[in-house]
Amino acid sequence: MPNRVKPPAVNPFRFGRIVSGDAFTDREADLLVLERELRGGQNILLEAPRRYGKTSLILEVKRRLEAAGIAVAYLDCMLVPSRARLADRLASVYLDAFKGPAQRAEDWVVQHLKTFRIRPTLTIDDHGHAQLSFEAGSAGAPSLDALLEQLFEEPEIIGRASRKKRVVVILDEFQDLMELGAGLLRQLRAVIQHQQHVSYALLGSRQALLRKAVHERSAPLLKMARPYPLGPLPRAEFTAFLMARFKASGRPVPKEAVLALIDITGAHPNDTQEVAHFLWEVALLPLPSQELVSTAIDRVLDAEAAQMTVLWHDSAPAQRNLLVALVEWGGRNIYSEAYRRRANLGPATTVQRAVQTLIDRELVDLEPSGAYTIKERFFEEWIRRRIIRGEL
Ligand SMILES: Nc1ncnc2c1ncn2[C@@H]1O[C@H](COP(=O)(O)OP(=O)(O)OP(=O)(O)O)[C@@H](O)[C@H]1O
Ligand SMILES: [Mg+2]
Domain tally for the chain? Predict the structure, then answer.
């Protein structure tokens, strides 16, 4: 018998992209609510900071709805640079989602899009994937407006005709549509507020734009959807999930190590998986738990060095001073004379300006407790280790 060669162990922790299947944990309560609301015709506004798992979660909801016979269209608005491109992308995702399994793409287009003033061109790539494009860029603005309006109306027509009398449209990072002109979301609202057979899931993370899109009194999508803020993952479940994956991959780690890791990341889904990924790499080193975790964080900071350096470079001196002060002295009473003197921050107006810029850049947050904090835990740790302690 030939010797069996053991396959190399595979790192079971994934970060930075959509997770599904056994890499996706918990969120059971969220899944139930979201599925029920969307099935019932309720629009949802799923709001969370970057990398909290919005897309992974909604794609899981999408799978469940589809298993129940409801068609779901998904569009990532971050990838849509113009209104003309929005028309193409919407038509393509509708085709993808709403075409019957036995239907040819050509037939669906003829059936649904024949009334459009600008005829779409259908292309089918090597993988059999269908794309539509209108060349709407060359048609004048009035035709593009009319085209978008017809596209916004399309899901209702399909929903009404469907067996379940319902379709779902997911607009991921929808706040980015604000950047395609002030009128666009108003136009969307004007159409979708009359729809009876479509539920919208709006996913967003960029706070400044979200305020303008949905929260301010004059916002185009004000009160159009049930707000559903998404928190970090529950600590106990996340701990159990991580422990189980360390063990199943042949590299068990002590529970203290996982608890220490979650303490540092605050159970932020992506950050936690990222530290776990690097903890798995060093898990076989003969080190006590705390040192293992610290070594893993060092590896994260090395991996993220380019991004951290850009954040630092893009900060003016007053912002840098303040960032360092927040790490060294905490974020309370930062305008007080004692704080400013201790941290060498200069006049209160300078601090005020620096704070505002850092908030606008979404690097710093004002907590409900009144303390200012650095939003990204890795950036905070990078400043502590690389700038304050001067570690290499
Ligand atoms: N339910 C989950 N179980 C385990 N890990 C998760 C879960 N949700 C998110 N994550 C972690 O977070 C990462 C980011 O997930 P995802 O891309 O879905 O988040 P997002 O909020 O859509 O991010 P972005 O702001 O970049 O759009 C994943 O790669 C994974 O490491
Ligand atoms: Mg996402």
Answer: 2
Q: Are residues 187 and 312 in the same domain?
A: no
3-state secondary structure 106-117: HHHHHHHHCCCC
pLDDT at 86 over 60: yes
CATH, residue 332: 1.10.10
Q: Does pTM surpass 0.85?
A: yes
Q: Which domain holds residue 378?
A: 306-388
Evaluate whether 88 touches 132 at the Cβ level (below 8 Å): yes
Give mean pLDDT, residues 217-237.
93
Candidate of 52, 76, 171 to mutate for ligand 1, largest count of ligand atoms within 8 Å of Cβ: 52
51 CA closest ligand 1 atom index: 23
CATH number at residue 69: 3.40.50.300
Ligand 1-lining residues (CB < 6 angstroms): 14-19, 24-27, 48, 50-56, 205, 269-270, 273
- Alpha-carbon span 385 to 200, nearest angstrom: 44
Query: Which of 11, 19, 209, 278 has most ligand 1 atoms within 8 Å of CB, for mutation?
Result: 19
Instruction: Please list the residues that pair with 365 across neighbouring strands.
Output: 373
Mean pLDDT confidence for 2-24: 85
Residues in the chain: 392
Q: Cα-Cα-Cα-Cα dihedral of 21, 285, 16, 272, to 10°?
A: 80
Q: Is 240 inside a domain boundary?
A: no
Q: Do both 224 and 316 map to the same domain?
A: no
On whether both 154 and 62 belong to a single domain, the answer is yes
Specify the pLDDT at position 103: 86
- Dist. CA 335–CA 110, nearest whole Å: 65
Whole-number Å distance between alpha carbons of 277 and 246: 10
Task: Give the pLDDT confidence score for residue 281 in this predicted structure.
Answer: 96
For residue 206, give the 3-state DSSP assignment. Answer: coil
Does residue 317 lie within any of the structural domains? Answer: yes
The pLDDT tens digits for 91-106 are: 999 999 999 888 888 8
Q: Which of 229, 258, 275 is the last residue of a domain?
A: 229
Q: Answer whether residue 367 is part of any domain.
A: yes
Domain check: are 76 and 222 in the same one? yes
Query: Does residue 330 sit in helix, strand or coil?
Result: coil
Residue 241 within any structural domain of the chain: no
Cα Rg of the chain (Å, integer): 25
Cα 97 to ligand 2 centroid, rounded to whole Å: 19
